[in-house]
Amino acid sequence: MTQTTAPVAAPHGASAAGGPAIELRDITIQYERPGQEPLAIVAGYDLDLRRGGLHCLAGRSGSGKTSILRVAAGLVPPTAGTVGWEGLEITGLADDVITAKRRKHIGYLDQRGNLLPGLTALENVLLPALPDRQTRQLARRARDLLEQLGVAGRSGHYPDRLSGGERQRVAFARALLLNPAVVMADEPTASLDRASADALIRMLRTLAANGHAVLVASHDAHLIDAADSRTTLA
Ligand SMILES: Nc1ncnc2c1ncn2[C@@H]1O[C@H](COP(=O)(O)OP(=O)(O)OP(=O)(O)O)[C@@H](O)[C@H]1O
Ligand SMILES: [Mg+2]
After folding, report:
1. Ligand 2 center to residue 227 CA distance, Å?
2. Which CATH class name applies to 2-233?
3. Which domain of life is it from (predicted)?
4. What is the pTM of this model?
5. For 168-184, how does the pLDDT look when each residue is reduced to its tens digit (9 = 90+)?
6. CB of 229 closer than 6 A to ligand 1?
7. Ligand 1 mean position to 61 CA, how many Å?
8. Residue 16 reports pLDDT greater than 80
9. Given strand 54-59, what is the order of strands in its sheet?
10. Where are the beta strands (DSSP E) in 86-172?
11. What pLDDT score was predicted for residue 14?
């Protein structure tokens, strides 16, 4: 059902740091449907993604890209199989434990770039700093990220005054705020023009070069080409 093309980011088990940043083992994803057989999306899927690697999940709409991202991020458990984060198997851990670990380990940019409507762009970027009361310390970093993403001029704007592409860039800055080991992005170039999309792809490459593991879902041929490895879902 799925096909992973070489090269894989790095050989499994080679890291002394305790395993791949993201390790998916024999993942099956099914959705229950009332009165029908469960909808089988993914079966027997494996992925080892190490720091320094950019992996792209490709495939047609509805093929399961977002489903795999959500499972890899521990947002939903797989129907079967296991998810590991740097040697820690998260499958079966309590939700609040996973949530706390995810906040530090993974920056997740969802398909819609969801921002809280009552907060400005800058306040949205600083949201991940709230639980540790780090908003003051990270304010400079938040502004720098908005600057790098070309939306510094929108810092004080509320989401309803931002374009779709601007909202997505603000959400991307939010995903990067805590400098997570893993950056996941769902269709990150979908609402950007070509020049902005290519700039974002360069940024994803830079993140990988700086030692992050980057996992994206995309139909964008430029992004698929820019990845070190890819999975084409059928
Ligand atoms: N929570 C859910 N309950 C039931 N079915 C779901 C659920 N989430 C997704 N699906 C179905 O699973 C399939 C895969 O969805 P998914 O969102 O993973 O696809 P995708 O590859 O990300 O698509 P797109 O390119 O349109 O974003 C689709 O048929 C979708 O309708
Ligand atoms: Mg999707």
Report:
1. 18
2. alpha beta
3. Bacteria
4. 0.89
5. 889 999 999 999 999 99
6. no
7. 8
8. no
9. 2-5, 229-233, 54-59, 213-217, 182-186, 106-109
10. 88-89, 106-109
11. 36
- Annotate 160-198 with three-state secondary structure: HHCCHHHHHHHHHHHHHCCCCCEEEEECCCCCCCHHHHH
- For the chain, the residue count is 234
Angle between the 164-176 and 135-148 helix axes, to the nearest 10 degrees?
A: 130
For the chain, the domains span 2-233
Mean pLDDT over the full length of the chain: 91
Q: Candidates 1, 65, 220: which one to mutate for ligand 1, based on the most atoms within 8 Å of Cβ?
A: 65
* Burial grade of 101 (CB within 10 A; 0-12, 13-18, 19 or more): middle
Is the distance from the beta carbon of residue 61 to the nearest atom of ligand 1 less than 6 Å? yes
Q: Which of 31, 32, 79, 191 to mutate to test the pocket of ligand 1 (most atoms within 8 A of CB)?
A: 31
pLDDT in tens, 52-77: 999 999 999 999 999 999 999 999 99
Region 109-125 average pLDDT: 92
Atom of ligand 1 lying closest to residue 111 CA: 27
The reported pLDDT for the residue numbered 17 is 56
